């Protein structure tokens, strides 16, 4: 009798979550997959199943190039956020002992999010333009003789903008994991004569790895689905999968947009699955 009640209670507790996943994830995803096989005409789509949209997508150099560009930008931005974010997280989580100061520094990292996403993106234009702040400073210092044209409306500007926007999502999880490290473990290593490099390599880095994986998942999901930053900072010269989806929806080509959406979902799922194979988060968190 008690086992029956426990099972019933567990079922009742799981029901809202299961219904939420069915209604707002599995059902929409299933619909997108279904629409991707519809017949696409010039300005309409018919519910007649065909693989024409998939064949066109997978045989088009434009779409395949967009996949390659998306993956390249994702890898570079992921590495950039890790290179920039890990030292910041290491400083806040390991060297700042005061909890209040730790919180204040983390809040400082989040301050840019108090403004609109679009404002944060567009703010890079006067910084990276040929007559922008960076070019002016470099020219006055005598480092360059003429403005650098690649800083804006290029893949470089997109990477810079995304790195700045999403770096905080790498800093937060890593800081949380580093701050959890028992200070007595580090003190014991120091007492045994371990250098900072050894302590970092054998204690801090392994224990912070779950935070790196969580940050990787956060950054990956957002960067792979990006379209606004690329559209604003590249002058539409950088075409990501997200931009393909937006343009296809704007042209009422729902089947092509659905195909791109399914491909993007597969890529994101593969990235998350690969990240979760590196570290078992249920065991480490």
UniProtKB/TrEMBL annotation:
State the signal peptide span: none
Under the heading InterPro entries, the entry gives: MetI-like, MetI-like_sf
| Keywords (A to Z) from UniProt | Cell membrane, Membrane, Transmembrane, Transmembrane helix, Transport
Name the family.
Belongs to the binding-protein-dependent transport system permease family. CysTW subfamily.
The ABC transmembrane type-1 domain extends over 67-275
Among PROSITE patterns, the record links this protein to: ABC_TM1 (PS50928)
Where does the UniProt entry say this protein principally localizes?
A: membrane
Which parts pass through the membrane?
A: 12-37, 73-96, 103-123, 156-179, 199-224, 254-279
Q: What Pfam families does this protein map onto? A: BPD_transp_1 (PF00528)
Q: Does the keyword Transmembrane helix apply?
A: yes
Q: What is this protein called?
A: ABC transporter permease
The record's Gene3D superfamilies line, in alphabetical order, gives: MetI-like
How does this protein lie in the membrane? Answer: Multi-pass membrane protein
Task: Cite the source lineage.
Answer: Bacteria, Pseudomonadati, Pseudomonadota, Alphaproteobacteria, Rhodobacterales
User: Where in the cell is the protein located?
Assistant: Cell membrane
**What's the domain of life for this entry?**
Bacteria
Q: Is Oxidoreductase among this UniProt entry's keywords?
A: no
